[in-house]
Amino acid sequence: MRTALILLLLLGIAAIPGSLFPQRTQNPIQVKQYFVNNPDTARFLDQLSLFDVYGSPWFSAIYLLLFISLIGCVLPRSIEHLKAIGAKPPLTPKYLNQMEHFTEIKSVDLDLIEKYLRKKHFRIRRDAASISAEKGYIRESGNLLFHLSLVLVLIAIGIGSLFGSKGDAILNVGDRFINTPTSYDILGFGKYQAEDSLAPFSITVKEFKAEYDPITNAPLDYTLTVKTANPAGSTEKTEIIKVNKPLTYGSTKIYLQANGYSPVVIVKDKFGKVVFDGPTTFLPQDGNLSSIGAIKVPDMQPQIGFVSSFLPTADRDPIRGGFSSYPEVLDPRLLISIWKGDLGLNTGIPQSVYRIDTSKMERIGLKALALNETYNFNEGSITFTGWKSWVNLQIINDPGKGYALLGAILAISGLLISLFTRQRRIWVKQGEKTQIAGLAKNGIPGLEDEIKSLVKEIGNER
Amino acid sequence: MNDKSAALLSNYFIYSAMAVYTLAFFAHAVEVAWSVKTPAVSVKKTTLDFSRTARVSRLAAAFMILGFALLLIAVVLRGISANRFPLGNMYEFSITGALTFAAAYLFSLKKYKVVWLGLPVSIAILLTLGSAITLLYRPSAPLVPALKSTWLVIHVSAAIISGGVFLLANFIAATYLLMDRYEQKGVRPVWAQKVPSLEALDNLSYRLVALVFPLWSFAVIAGAIWAEAAWGRYWGWDPKETWAFITWVAYAAYLHARITIGWRGRKAAWLCLFAGSTFLFNYVYVNVWGTGRHTYSGL
Ligand code: HEM
Fold first, then answer.
1. Regarding beta strands A333-341 and A321-324, do their DSSP bridges make them parallel or antiparallel, or are they unpaired?
2. Can you give the CATH number for the domain in which A126 is found?
3. What is the DSSP string of B102-168?
4. Is residue A446 in some structural domain?
């Protein structure tokens, strides 16, 4: 058990760097930023997996070793413990006066002492002139339960990561989502999770309501109303999803993760033909939801891109220029800078949907659009016609979590049992006088008082 | 009473609690100072005579109880002003944390007679409340959506109670190390003679940790259950989670070291201090500088 303990400590220490360096799994943007700011250090850190600590080979190695050592130590101990449960306490030692809490009293009938100890639920080995009594085996049971439960937790984590999936889908109000791999913006599968094993539900986003505190601008409540069916095509029912209240289908849960605005614009070309009409997802930048985004119109000749910001409640001050002063849409503005040239969509390099690589483009205009305002630029026109709210649904399937919870609860129960029971022995030997001594396993205090009250009790009975 | 005046009243009670804890601090100091009896002949023969200070000692304890009561009212009023449990930002965590720390002290005072601990405890409470109301103060406000859950009360109060008790165990372990230092060099200085034996200190900090470790484990598990409901995963190595795990491992190591390997005394006290520091680090670092999702400090 000592090895397991050392490994557990090591796991704790190994977890530290993950909280000091940004992690790809949690904060990919910060990791990129780190690479930009300190490229050399970053590359070095990356070689040590310090941006992926919890998936790194060395972290996994400690984890696996811990797993093996737990099993290796708990199994033999469990067998031994099972044997000990049926067995009698060991023989009374020869010389009690060398043991702890040694006491000598006037000769007392051993039967009386045996009766007393039995009443106190000691296990008894009675020999002609001695009693060996032991109590507190359940301490070891608790201990083993605790360690076995840790093994269960580790297995549950493994099940989750091998057989689960996790993905994000960004949906505008009105959009319909069907749970297939192609519907996701990002989707990760466990090693053994088959692609067609996704629960076959559909979700249509009906309404998203965000309430804010008018004084602090802090969000108070988000309510997402959806129509959903499982499997897709069966009768739909209306469900509400909130931040702390996901929608559940079996081991799959659907969470409301984030929200923002998608401004709607109509773009026409020189001849007045509509080349773009619809919402574009923008990325919120602050608590008042000023958002940035990129409206890309590849179907024009030359291609046109609008590098934009959306301000739900526009405000100005001399230092910051335009900004948003409230997260709700009260007085929206769409700030655009218009670029013409090559959007670079066909280079094969994946591009951020929120940004435009303007290196091969030329800026041909700049404008702040109020609602329903149209701006004519050389190549065509753009009209800001409205906005939609978008929500980010995170859809997670973790078939291991039930076991993890069970393991955690059992672990705590085991821990409580083992921390709050004392295992101890009491020996009684009959000679000219009656000798009493004891042994507290692990040196936990309390035995002395117990022996004192035994002596007192026996003294009273005569 | 409207929400604004309840919040204001709560602040007044915080200030009064601070005043009373200052009195408690002086009473404890006086108790120690006055009980030193130096005979005219030689400074070396200095002894302690607590018969003269029994009254002051009782007064000090009374101040600690009064301070606790005022603090309790302050915390309750803060909750009333926000119409919820006062666990919504770092100011509230800190005053509620100070309250559970004060309660842990009173509990130990009754059970283990730890009047001597009143001096450092009153300083610690003063510092916590002082920094809370000056640096961390935020007006009473509704909760952000992520915190609207019954788990808030379950998870956070379990974490904060554990924190209060861990902190007390740390004070006792630190006292142990200090006393040990003196005894290594010779005898304790007079003012420290009323502090219990090394063995008693050692056992006391162990008992506090053993008592509260299951609650701490529960706080972490409740956090994981909540994280599953709020964030979609029960464990994600978020900085707060990582440090909660480290604290848990450190205390598990401490308990193991004592129980199975039989560490006592100095080594155990250091380990206890280390484990407690990981908790404090989590509270300060992750709330103030930290990243991750677990940042509700409101700073
Ligand atoms: C595995 C999941 C979680 C773990 C391990 C965890 C751990 C902790 C710890 C260690 C504390 C104690 C105070 C401190 O050291 O700062 C704490 C407090 C707190 N937790 Fe969690 N937590 C988890 C999930 C959550 C979730 C899901 C929420 C809310 C959405 C939450 C909200 C809070 C709040 C508001 C506090 C109060 C004080 C503070 O932030 O310091 N926790 N948690």
1. unpaired
2. 3.30.310
3. HHHHHHHHHHH--GGGHHHHHHHHHHHHHHIIIII-----PPPGGG-STHIIIIIHHHHHHHHHHHH
4. yes
Confidence of residue A290 (pLDDT cuts 50, 70, 90): very high
Same domain, A276 and A382: yes
Q: What does the domain layout of chain B look like in residue ranges?
A: 143-299
Ligand 1 centre to CA of B105 (Å) is 24
pTM recorded for the entire structure: 0.79
Residues of B in contact with A439 (CB under 8 A): none
Are the Cβ atoms of B213 and A2 closer than 8 angstroms?
A: no
Q: Which residue in B has a C-alpha nearest to residue A396's C-alpha? A: B232
Are residues A441 and A355 both part of a single domain?
Answer: no
Mutation for B interface: A19, A213, A216, A247, most B CBs within 10 A: A19
Domain of residue A296: give its range: 260-389
Q: Is residue A1 part of a domain?
A: no
Q: Which residue has its alpha carbon closest to ligand 1 atom 10?
A: B244
Size of interface A-B (CB pairs under 8 A): 123
Q: Do A381 and A427 lie in a common domain?
A: no
- The answer as to whether A288 is a domain residue is yes
- Residue range B33-64, pLDDT digits in tens: 776 655 555 555 555 555 666 788 888 899 99
| A437 domain residue, yes or no | yes
Predicted complex: ipTM over 0.90: no
Domain co-membership, A265 together with A356: yes
Q: Domain tally for chain A?
A: 2
| A288 shares a domain with A382 | yes
pLDDT tops 90 at residue A416: no
Query: What is the structure's pLDDT at A422?
Result: 79
Residue pLDDT, tens place only, A85-120: 778 888 888 888 888 888 888 888 888 888 888 888
Position B124 pLDDT exceeds 60: yes
Mutate to test the pocket of ligand 1, among B155, B285, B286 (most ligand atoms within 8 A of CB): B155
Q: Are residues A439 and A330 in the same domain?
A: no
pLDDT tens-digit map of B201-213: 898 899 899 889 9
